[in-house]
Amino acid sequence: MMEPETDKRLVAWVRQAAPYIHAFRGKTFVVAFGGGVLQEGNAQALIHDIALLDAMGIHLVLVHGARPQIDEEMTARGLSPRFHNGLRITDAATLECVKRTMGRMRIEIEALLSQGLPNTPMAGAFLRVTGGNFITARPVGIVDGVDLQHTGAVRHVIAEEICADLAQENVVLITPIGVSPSGEIFNLAWEDVAEAVAVAIRADKLVFLCDAPGITNKQGELLDALTADEGESLLSKKVKQCPDILRVLPGALRACRSGVGRVHFLDRKQDGAMLMEFFTREGVGTVMTSTPLARLREASIADVASILALIAPLAADGTLVKRDRERIEAEIAHFSVLEHDGIIIGCAALHPYSGEKAGELACLAVIPEYRRAGYGDQLRRHIETQARKMKFKQLFALTTRAAHWFVERGFVETEVASLPAAKRELYNFQRRSKVLVKGL
Ligand SMILES: CC(C)(COP(=O)(O)OP(=O)(O)OC[C@H]1O[C@@H](n2cnc3c(N)ncnc32)[C@H](O)[C@@H]1OP(=O)(O)O)[C@@H](O)C(=O)NCCC(=O)NCCS
């Protein structure tokens, strides 16, 4: 028997994950990782998580690298790896090592994805893995006088074929090798391939598994989210980052600006990093978006359930007035919501009393995990702007617990008698809410 506390935590976790599970079904994620992942003994855990994402109906494209394995193969053959600007110089002998290593790694990854032993997270999983000549390449050529020979750059991604495979519920595994129309083989950088594929198939997420927990700021603190502009500024200011992050960041910025919804940077050594990043509100790594993550918008009828869920605990403890589904549905046009990564994290309503040129800022709430980040204020400012547009002269708020919050934002306490007549009639003397008002 499970401990009641464990039970509770499990149930809470599954419930918290539910909106994300619904939101991600049918979405496409490109997950990219270097060869190091397969060397460090945590490949099994990663594969289990990939199988779980697949089981949740997420379309997956995996892009793998093989740098350390190619180096090993070269050393075993008495060859010395050579690089220029972080790119391997692929001469004919190196290309042989690349082909051999890539082939072996592909087989190994396919084998890992094909496991299904009972009593493991892979039990009952069957992942069909496909791949193919999806990438055409061209030579990088001569850089600073150095001929990179068989090192290539992505020329074209055959997106239709990848998407067709995904539509068949296959996991697409891409090995960073490309061919030119003349039949020449090129060694590609996995991070470039991941970027090009994610852009070509318009992936919802591009995930880089890196040697660091994510992107850090000047103070070395992990950033949970940033915009592409902020990422670019960190790069241009040469803010210190781990080598993998520096390697993938330029491509991540381009992908983000070319329509890939979100780019995630996660620690490849952290067990379950993808699950925690995608299915918990807090996440564990860094997510980069082209525009700020939280989006304020008018609510629609589809948001009713989310608003109800958001305010239910606050109504239960008396912080907010109880509102049932019918009431929220009827008043939905008054609501604005803050959406973060597809999840509603805050709401507020503007109830108009047009005859008295007044409005009521009501049902203002932000979920606890996102408080103290200015979202409450963002909603308040939005409601004030709306009220001004409607030519209201006053904005009221009734609160039992947050009077100071409003006072610090220019509201003053007033009498029940100064409420608009219709509101005054409904005033609940048992709740004894404080009445606050702000001139607009
Ligand atoms: C009030 C509420 C919407 C603020 O949301 P938020 O996103 O945290 O707001 P902001 O980030 O803009 O402001 C945070 C600041 O307000 C302060 N604050 C939060 N709740 C407060 C309260 N009840 N009274 C006084 N100050 C409060 C915080 O301490 C923080 O200030 P600090 O960082 O200087 O300590 C949020 O706490 C909430 O949902 N509360 C429950 C519902 C509620 O009371 N709604 C108001 C009645 S309609």
The molecules bound to the chains, other than polymers, are:
coenzyme A
Largest sheet: 8 strands, mixed
Distance between the termini: 59 Å
Would you count the extended β strands for me? 23
CATH superfamily of the largest domain: Acetylglutamate kinase-like
Question: Tell me, what is the CATH class of the largest domain?
Answer: Alpha Beta
Query: Biggest sheet, strands in spatial order?
Result: 5-10-2-1-13-15-16-14
Structural class: alpha/beta
The coarse overall form would be: elongated
Strand content: 15-25%
**Rg, Cα atoms, Å:** 27 Å
Low-pLDDT residue intervals, each spanning 5 or more residues: none
The total number of structural domains is: 2
Mean pLDDT: 92
CATH topology of the largest domain: Carbamate kinase
- Going by CATH, the architecture of the largest domain would be 3-Layer(aba) Sandwich
Q: What is the helix fraction of residues, given as a range?
A: 25-40%
Per DSSP, the total helix count is 15
